[in-house]
Each structure stands twice: as structure tokens, then as C-alpha cells.
Amino acid sequence: MRWIFPLLSFIGGIAIAFQAQINGTLGRRAGALEGAFISFAIGALALLFMVLFFGKGNLGSIFTVPKWQLLGGLLGAFYVSVMVLVVPKIGVAPTLVAVIAGQLILGAIIDHFGLFGGQRFPLDTKKMIAIGLLFCSLFLFNQK
Q: What tens digit of pLDDT does each residue of 87-133 get?
């Protein structure tokens, strides 16, 4: 049953590729910041309905959680804004390779040190080779 998590992650990656192109096109029509705002507003509305009909948690925890945990929303807005701006300039694939490179490098650092209360997963030689190959991919995807 452990295979379900990588599969869900893979499907999430597919969704992000669709989202990047859709938001990039929206940004060309509405403007970069306006497109990011529209995208986030629609997402927030969808989440509001999900919380209303399926939520079992506590929205009031926004006032009690450590304030650094609220940065996720700002980082998400930054990510969407970058996608809206960058995808029309270099395309979906090169943009996502760069995003994935950033995610993997910081993810490996977070895992290695167990930052933000996470479990430690030490960085080893295989992971470092994989990161190096990812940079090769990033270079090749951005060649004209």
C-alpha cells in the first residue's frame, strides 16, 4: 500500500504541469499578478467549499499555531506568481525542471537536518549524484 503515496505525488506533479500552462495563459490575458490572484482566489473558494462540506479540523488554529507555519500560503502565492510570469517566457518543461531542482535541493537539505520538525533522512552519495544529474537536465532543457 506504500505505492499509493508516490502515485499520488506523481499525479500531483501532473496537476502542477497543467496548472503551470493554464496559469501562464491566464497571466498573458489578465496580467501576471492579476492572473496569480485569480488562480489563488478560485483555489481558495474551492477549499472553502471542501472545508464546509468535508472539514473536520479547526480553522481557529490560525491564531494558535506558530506564526512561521502560516508562511505556506505566502510561499504558495509566490510560486503561482512565478509560474504565471515564467512559463510564457521559457515554457512549461524548462520551468518545471528548474522548480523540481529547487524543490529537490531544499528538500534534501530539510530532510538531512530534519528541519521544521521533520524526520531526518540523511543525504548520501546516491542522492547527491541524483541532484547532479538533475542539474544536467536543467542545463539541457534550457539549451536552444
A: 999 989 888 988 988 998 999 999 999 998 889 999 999 999 999 99
Q: Can you give the pLDDT at residue 141? A: 81
Cβ neighbour number for residue 41 with a 10 Å cutoff: 10
The burial class, CB within 10 Å (0-12 / 13-18 / 19+), for 95 is buried
Closest CA relative to residue 89, chosen from 20, 43, 39: 20
All cell numbers assigned to 112: 538531512
Confirm if 19 and 83 have CB atoms less than 8 A apart: yes
CB distance 40 to 77 below 8 Å: yes
- pTM for the predicted model, two decimal places: 0.79
